[in-house]
Amino acid sequence: MRTGARAVGVPLRKSLLTRLLAASLLIAGCALSATAWLAVQTTSSVIREQSGQALTDDVAVYQTLMDYAATHPRWDGVDRTVRQLAARTHRRITLRDLQSPGGRLIADSSPGAAGPHSAQALAVVDPLQTDPALIRDTRADRIYPKALGPFRLTPAEHRQLVLMAKKGVDCVREKLQLPIAVALVDVPGGRPRVQVSGSSDYQLKASLVCRLYQLDDPTPTESTALAHLNTLISGCLRRQGLRTVKLGLDFTPTPPPEDGAIGTATQNCIDTSRREQLAPYVAPVARVYVSRSSGSAAVWRFDFSAANAARIVGVTALVLVVTTAVTAAVGLRMVRPLRALTDAVRRPGQTHVPLPVAADDEIGRLTRAFNDLSAYRERMEEQRKAMVSDIAHELRTPLTTIRGWLEATQDGVLSAEDEVTASLLEETLLLQHIVDDLQVLAASDAGTLELHLEYVEAGTILEHAATAYGGHAQSAGVALEVCAKDDVWVFADPLRLRQIVGNLVSNALRHTPAGGTVSLRSRRKGKTVLIEVADTGSGIAPDDLPRVFDRFWRAERSRSRRTGGSGLGLAIVRQLVEAHEGEVTVTSTLGAGTVFTLQLPT
């Protein structure tokens, strides 16, 4: 009759694939919704704060006020400029004097507005100390380029220079006719300059032919200011005992200052003298504050058109479709090996066929573990069958002997003499020994083996084993030696440890021919105790070494039970040693002997 459960499909609502899809769709929907809401609420403010607009406004405010301070000796009339900046940047701008006690208010773009006058100090407005963080390409002396002071050209001088520059441009274009570009530009100081592109040779030719170098000659105003500046510099250098230098219109000293400390001191004199000369022509040092204007819009928002809204909906739908497809593909790949595992479990009586491992993931590892478990179960089943057969074989011989003796006695062939009784007792003891060994193994397998641990001296255990098996060794013509180190203690069950050593000695005596030796040794190694049982017997083949601790296994299957043992002694040794949290190993050489080593905790 066919047995087994009928395959029942998992309800769709409980399917792993359904739950995986539902979870993925829920996560994707929540993530998209949250992202869209966050984008709508915060995009405008993030763009305004992080796109550089705020920095651009700060630079514009600072540069405009620096322009004003560089061209005006006082702040009178700056209110209009401050209001224009506030309207353009949507900021409230406040300017305070740093040189007056308490910071006198110079200008405020919203003087009647409630709240504090400033939320953030932007910078110090000082044309003689430019902030390089706000003004790019600031010169080393940090003097604002538009702070001209006494070097400022008069209108007549400016017109004359412009006229000369235009003539120079016409000269370059008409007379030279070179493949170069020429243009009239203004430098920050207000002087016109003819800019000639091309190689240095072209520029030099244009300067000489069209006398462009004359544009670099100082005007009367600039000559007067330059003479005054050189006087200030000379006085500073003389006071420090330094060599005198002169500045040209480009403020480059001649001769150039030396390197090192002398050159630094010379440059400091130049910079100090320039600031001293310009100070009466620039506005006093002030600090500018900026804050959000109370009259500007506090919150910025995006207005999405129908097209933009359609794009958002379309992208959201596309993401959901892709997420669903990917999740379905992944889910099917996950469910397929699980179904194969389920089918294999529903066929317990059939021969196990290893399932393919598709990937090294959790399911792949589960499949591999299932294959190992199935293979282990098959091995255990084979061992169980072999064990039952071996047990039946081991019990049949003494039972047959006992039955034969009893039947012979019952039929009157034999009398109940001492010889018969002794033979029956011997066979009964053999049966009892096999049953006891099986009971030890069963208790160890079930985890119910009890140990009564205490500290015992290893040498005492070895001497006891030597005494117990001394007669057997003498009758077999085998020397039994004990070599135990003094004061070697082990934490173990004394009775079980005697059983372990006894089984090893019995096994060694069975496989050692007359004239051989069985040695019992003990010593300490680190935190463990080593007990060795060595013989000079026939040895074990290398291929058989891994099986010496298997139950009912004999190196020579032809040996009888009386000469070869029951095949349980070494299996019991391994079980008892592992119960003591120790380890037993064996090394052997054919024809030379075998050494069993116990490693037990102290």
Structure, explained:
- By secondary structure, the protein is α+β, with helices and mostly antiparallel strands.
- The protein has four domains: 12-50 and 303-345; 53-147 and 283-292; 150-281, no CATH class; 450-601, Heat Shock Protein 90 (2-Layer Sandwich), CATH 3.30.565.10.
- Helices cover 51% and strands 14% of the residues.
- The chain has 15 helices and 15 strands.
- It has helices spanning 16-50, 53-71, 78-89, 155-176, 200-209, 220-239, 260-278, 306-345, 362-410, 418-446, 458-468, 470-476, 494-510, 561-564, 569-579; strands spanning 91-97, 105-108, 120-125, 182-186, 192-196, 246-247, 253-254, 286-292, 454-457, 479-484, 489-492, 517-525, 528-535, 583-589, 593-601.
- The protein has a five-stranded mixed beta sheet. The chain has a four-stranded antiparallel beta sheet with strand order 2-1-8-3, with helices on one face. Strands 4-5 form a two-stranded antiparallel sheet.
- A hairpin with a 3-residue loop joins strand 14 and strand 15.
- Helix 2 (53-71) runs antiparallel to helix 3 and helix 8 (306-345) runs parallel beside helix 9 (362-410).
- It is elongated and about 160 Å long.
- The two termini are 59 Å apart.
- 20% of the residues are buried.
- Residues 1-8, 294-302 and 558-564 have low confidence and may be disordered.
